[in-house]
Amino acid sequence: MSGLPRQMWLAFASAALFSLLINTLMLGPSLYMLQVYDRVMPGQNQLTLLVSSAALLLVLALVCFLEIGRSRLLVRLGMELDRTFAPRVMEASMDAQLPALQRNPTQVFADLTVVRQFLTGNGVFALFDAPWFFIYIGVLFVLHPWLGWLGLACALVLLAIALGSRVWTAAPAQAAADAALALGAEQQSVLRMAPVIHVMGMLLPMRAAWNHGFARQTQAQERAESREHSATAVSKFFRYTQQSLSLAAGAVLVIRGEISPGAMIVANLLMSRALAPVDLLVGTWRPLLQAQSAWARIQALLRANPQQPPGTLMQDPHGRIEVRGLSVQVPGKAEPILRDVNLDIPAGSMVCVLGPSGSGKSTLVRAMLGLWPGHGGQVLLDGAALSRWQPQALGQCVGYLPQELDFLEGSVAQNISRFGALDAEQVVAAAQAAAVHDLVLRLPQGYQTPVGESGVRLSAGQKQRIGLARALYGGPRLVVLDEPDANLDEAGDQALRQAVSALRAGGVTVVLVTHRAALVQTADLVLLMRQGQVAQWGPPAQVHAAQQPAPAVSVMQGTPT
Length: 561
Description:
The chain has 561 residues and is an alpha/beta fold. The chain contains 20 helices and ten strands. Helix content is 62%, strand content 10%.
């Protein structure tokens, strides 16, 4: 598999060396049988039997230790795979999820598990053992050339069966895997929307759609397993036939006096041992194909989301934002979401972003925070590109309240403090700044109240007000609020206005997506977006005047009417 670090390839090489030693030592039982049938039994030499048995026991013990060592080496290789790639996969999955375009972000972790299980399973042993069947074939040639040629012919037939099975089962196996992924994503979507589906009577059509996807997945699975089992049956048929052929060939040579009866039995054992890895390959094609597909998806994710160099700037930002020629394009969509956006927001300013639905307001504020990578132009904070800022240091100076608000599993205090070192004074200060302190105290356990998964134990208004406290935690210098008043009642709306006023008084840069006239009138600058472009930009009065229709002029009098 391309993309593995050098130390992992060295571990594979070590495992291959272990396999060479194991397969070489496994000649011991064959040589032991040859001694017993051709020397001990005819000569009734018990001392030879005792020495041969002791030597065989030593060889088998050494094989046991080598197999244990090989297994442990592969297990450690699997753990090293997780340690090496799991952090990168996590980062790449989060980067891919920032624009909310990745359909199933958890699938890549299942892919990593598939690769690890293959590398530490029996299938990889077949890959290691298969090349060393030449050792056994060579011994067969020593016993008699006919036996060697028979072993080679059987190996070629089995290899042809294995390759044919790969071609025959590859497409159905891939189709079954794709259908399973699609069904899993659909299941997650349906479960996430369960309340809406239940209340709005959508269960029957959703069930019909799910049944259709489930039937497609089971049909693909049945087709793949049917072909795999058929290929395995053909392989078993030939293996049974091969055993009979090898015995028959050995019997003919014994009758002719060209080999001994002991050599006939040993040849049958050696041929079975030589062909076992090749036969095992037939049964491991599907896990191998699944591991290859999983690894290809992991590599595609890592290539699409390369590791960004760590930023170097760590000073507290002042909050000046410059947007230069910013364009944002969704893959697969012809029209860009944002087109050539240019803005200069002074530090300490309050900016209200207006515009109809779909005009690119949320995309713009997300791009300002680096959450949606631009396909053209750039965003500067205090004159430096966002990539130059150290993420952790910058994150502590930025507050963000997204339109779709979620919480992590934990307490109210942990979510407000962003799951960092819990500073009770700063948590309370942020809650008071968001005017949510009294609301939190009325919760069953106050600040220690568990919010549940995605904040399910909180109402929409509570989530929005606690989310505002999280955005204000730590005294940020830049606060971006995307529709922060969507679920607020009158008290919450008043608390929001007070919080925004306090931020302005403190010289904090505030970017606010809203339609509330009371907030727009108090802004320093207003941005009006239309179809992904800047329609109007300037002070509120100027933008408001530009939106008013020109007064009608009387032709007769030449004066406005």
